[in-house]
Amino acid sequence: MKVNIDIKNNGVKIPEELINAADGDELIARLFYNRGYKDPHTVKQMLHDQLYVPTDIWEFQNMKDAVDIIRNAIGNKEKIAVYGDYDVDGVTSTALLVQCLGFLTPNVLYHVPDRFTEGYGMNEGVIQRLHEKGVSLVITCDCGVSNVNEVTLAKELEMKVIVTDHHSIPDVLPPADVILNPKLLKEGHKARNLSGCAMAYFLSKALLKSFDMEEKSQLFMDLVAMSLIADVVSLNGENRYLLKNGLPILFNTKRTGLKSLFNIIQKNSKLQTEEDVAFQIAPRINAAGRMDSARLPVEMLLSRQAKIADDMAGRINSLNEERKRVQEQIIKEAQEIVENYKKMKSVLVLYSEFWHHGIIGIAAGKICETYRKPAILLSLKEDGQTIVGSARSTDDVNIYELLKETSGKLLKYGGHSKAAGLSLKKEDIKAFTDEIEDMAERLIYTDNSMEIVVDSELSFENIDEDFYERLKKAGPYGEGFEAPLFLTRSVSILNDRITPKNHHIMVVSDINDVRLAAVKWFGGSDSFKGKVCDIVYKVGLNSYKNNTTLQLTIEHIVETDGKIRRAFEGVIEDCRNLDVMEAAKVHENSIVFYEGISQRCPVDGTRTRMQLKKADNLVFLSVPVNSNVFREAVFMVNPKRVILNFSILSDYTFKGFLTLLFGVLKESTSTGEGCLEMYELSMLLGVEEEIVRTALKYLKAAGKIDYIYEPDDIMVTVWRKNAAPSLDISVCEKKLTNALLEKNAYQSFIKNLECHMFKEYLKV
Fold first, then answer.
1. Of 663, 687, 692, 683, whose CA–CA distance to 595 is shortest?
2. CATH number of 654-749
3. At what angle do helices 654-668 and 729-752 cross, to 10 degrees?
4. pTM for this structure?
5. Burial letters for 49-65: b for 16+ Cβ neighbours within 10 Å, e otherwise?
6. Contact 451, 4 (CB under 8 A)
7. Cα–Cα distance for residue pair 732/577, rounded to 1 Å
8. Is 344-447 in CATH node 3.10.310.30?
9. From the centroid of its chain, how far is CA 441?
10. Torsion-angle region of residue 498: left (phi > 0), alpha (psi -120 to 50) or beta?
11. Nearest by Cα to 53 from 199, 246, 182, 189
12. pLDDT tens column, 277-291
């Protein structure tokens, strides 16, 4: 595939007044200019919250009427129901309104729909049940504006209805008592693109203000921040202001349920960016609604009891793991269909009656991204007669319009240009597929090239902690204000360590031999080591325990014909005859590398592969787990001297290794079950993660433990047990024995390798 990299507004001189508005920082001014913000006053407001004038609660049409209706219901001790939705926006909206109303009345209940039996939005059966429970006021959140029939029923049952929603206004509005929707504001209003939760926040703020309790609305900012990122709303105007103020509250949340969830997520790395919310928090909350019930995350967000919140957070995390396993299987099966039957089609219509309805949307997105074509994934409902589907599309194809052209075969469809949902009868699936494939052939031009737009071309010497802080100041980033992308040409890939999930952990060097750590997620199984490439990347941080280092996240990598530069120009000193304490102090300004059990190393301040930085000297007290980690350490530190000591060796005897592993597991499971990072176990034991898995499998076969892998198999939860050995114990024992023999041979090889040979060993 041909890749074209375009530097946006390359050669355009940024106006001086815009640079001044960006506090004299031309880089930041260029980021705003590239995103269409060319008015100095607007840029100044976006950078400095104190200059921004927030939207007033009374700017929303009928806000006072909504407050009066709720106050009246509270005063009459009437029962109030909050009616939400099953995604992050709906869950946070529901929790927000329930918590807000809970400050004022005990007569509050809520309902979030079941994705599979009710679908999105309000349901007439639910309205009937709420009426039977004595509910006299229904307040919707993140839904309702298109539910004409359901609101009509509620009114016929003499219930009051306040709709709070943020979706597009339909031609016919429901007969609610009040509709609060930012889309009712005039075009161009700074609050017109609020999330559903942000709309609920404004209602809560107005209601609490009427009770002289407005300060309590600050308690909801963590929920608002989550919704703004998860619902992918445009981050300008009011949304940017709310998110900028909400993110610090979210990351330092006092909410018991979120603290429980965060404790699971951030074992070794701290949540601190918008991407952490998008890729770590939101998928877990969404998973509950996809795999089970969205009541679970609502209850977690409302919980004040740590033990109960911990249990719910654990359940949510498990559902997310289940979601990922199901998702991987669907994607694998879908890719097989494409490769075998559909590769030449302009739109990919894929069907399996067994695919999970709650997951096909995510899978469609992945297929669309992989093949750069619109993808429609279809599955069979429980009734055996109805097909449901999710569609995802590229920027240049409006999938909603494509479905509209074939709507004669559809029972229902809806969505927007890049994502849509649909349903049809089972007997119509072939006719629908043929029609939309034929239409796509005529309408869609498939271009076998990729256009990548970046903000600027950089050399690595520009990238340091100050550079990262400047980028952070221009944030938050997201929809409509995308994170900056940069280009560096002729980058040498000095090392490329590929994880079991095909993540690439790299050391990269530019033409001036400035070196940085880099990662490429899901980069495939082929190594880039030794190649010279042009890379497009984001600048971020990698946090491990109390250590934070700069890290590039590579988005695109394009191989060139360049020649790799020498990766190590220093000298190698043989200190294998020295005591460990002497070796550690042989030179000043040294990084001392050690991986293993801390009690075995008498030297303070050692570092693992996760904590490396530039230094004049690199001392090896332990043998790195493999040649990739060895090179990674040398190339990342880029020292003038490498000092070989290797006086602390790993025990790779079968008994010794298992004793060490069992000791680690025993300590972590002292209170029941323990959750451990796989790479942490790898570093403690001095083996690759695959050998850790083999050892865990053996201990399970021996009846000593049981375990489950968690997020992307990077964590494992272990608990001890006492059971009879399984039938495959001898197979597991043999596999582990052979692996440990290989490790022992490698350690002996490195321990005894002649000093001059290490230069050869370090060649790329």
1. 683
2. 1.10.10.10
3. 110
4. 0.83
5. eeebeebebeebebbee
6. yes
7. 38
8. yes
9. 35
10. beta
11. 189
12. 998 999 999 999 999
